[in-house]
C-alpha cells in the first residue's frame, strides 16, 4: 500500500476509552472584532481546509454552501489518507495546496505556533489566514456557528438562519446529547479497547437514536420548522452510519436504513441542496478503512452498502420547509467537490 502506512496509534487511554482531544486554536472570525483572538470576517482572506471524510469538517462544508460563502472563503480538500505528518495536499498538483503553498496542513499549525502548534494533533476543519499561512481556528462547533452568524454581510440572498436566537437553548440541548452519544458516541464505540467501554457507548448511542426516532416521528426537523445547526450536526454522522460506523465501528444493533423516521429524515436532508451533494462516500470509506489500521489491518475498503439515499421520504407531509419562509436553496453544485481516482491496489 503506497498511499499510506496506515495508522497504528492508540486511540484509547488505559481504561479502554476513547478520549477526544479538543481544539488547539479557538480564535474566532467575527463581523466586528473587538480584541485579541478575534479576526475580521473578510472575503478572500481565509482558506477552509477540510477532509471530505471527516464528519466534523463536513459540517463546515455544508454550512459554507448553505450560506453561499464559496466566493468569500476558499476550500482546500485534503487527501483522505493521512501520512505520518497527518493531513496532506497530495490530491493537488505537485502535492501542494495552490493557495497556501503547503504540502501538509501541519505547516499552518506550526506557522501559528512553531513550538506547540501541533500538540493536540493536526485536525480538520481548520481555517487558515492566507497571507500569513497561519492557522486561525480549528474549533469546529464555533466555526459553523460563526459562518452562519458572523458572515451575514457576505452571505447569499436567501441563506437560512441555522441558529435563530429564540431556538438556541433547544438547539444547544439537542446538540449536547447528539454530540456525546451519536457524533462522538460512534467513535467511543469504535475506538474502545475494553468490552465494557464499547458496550456502554453502544447502549448510549442506540438509546439516543431511539429517542431521536421518536422525536422525528412528528416533526420534520430536530428543532423548529426549518433546518438548523442541530440537523447539520446529526446529518454528518448519519451520512456515514451504514457505510462506516455500523460495520467498522461495530455500531450494529441496526442500520440507519432499518429505522423508520430517522432514515426518512436522513434521506430528506440528503436530498436537500448542500447536504447530499457534499457527501463523498469514497473519501469517507477510504479514510476510515485505510487509515484506522488498528481496526482494519488489511485496509480493504468494502464495496457496499448499496444505500438508497434518493428514494422518496414523504417528510413534506409533516409541514416545515428546509430554508424557512424567506429562505431559498443554494444553487445546485455543478460537479462533485473532489472525486477520487481508483483505489491504489
Ligand atoms: N480535533 C477536533 C475534532 C476534529 C477531528 O477530530 N478531526 C479528525 C478527522 S475526523 C482529525 O483531523 N483527526 C486528526 C487529529 O486529531 O490529529 C476536536 O475534537 O476538537
Automatic annotation (TrEMBL):
Which Gene Ontology cellular-component terms appear in the entry?
A: cytoplasm
**Highest taxon of source:** Bacteria
- Which keywords does this Swiss-Prot/TrEMBL entry list? Transferase
Q: Where is this region: Disordered?
A: 1-37, 312-345
Q: Where is the active site?
A: 54 (nucleophile), 187 (proton donor/acceptor)
- List the Pfam families hit by this protein, alphabetically: GST_C_2
Q: Which InterPro entries match?
A: Glutathione-S-Trfase_C-like, Glutathione-S-Trfase_C_sf, Glutathione_S-Trfase, GST_Omega-like_C, GST_Omega/GSH
Sequence ranges assigned to domain GST C-terminal in this UniProt record:
164-291
Whether Transferase counts among this entry's keywords is yes
List positions binding glutathione.
87
Residues of the site described as Lowers pKa of active site Cys? 245, 288
**Protein's UniProt keywords contain Isomerase:** no
What the entry lists under Gene3D superfamilies is as follows:
1.20.1050.10, Glutaredoxin
Which terms does the record give in the GO molecular function aspect? glutathione transferase activity
Query: What's the name of the protein?
Result: Putative glutathione S-transferase
Q: Which organism is it from?
A: Actinomycetospora corticicola
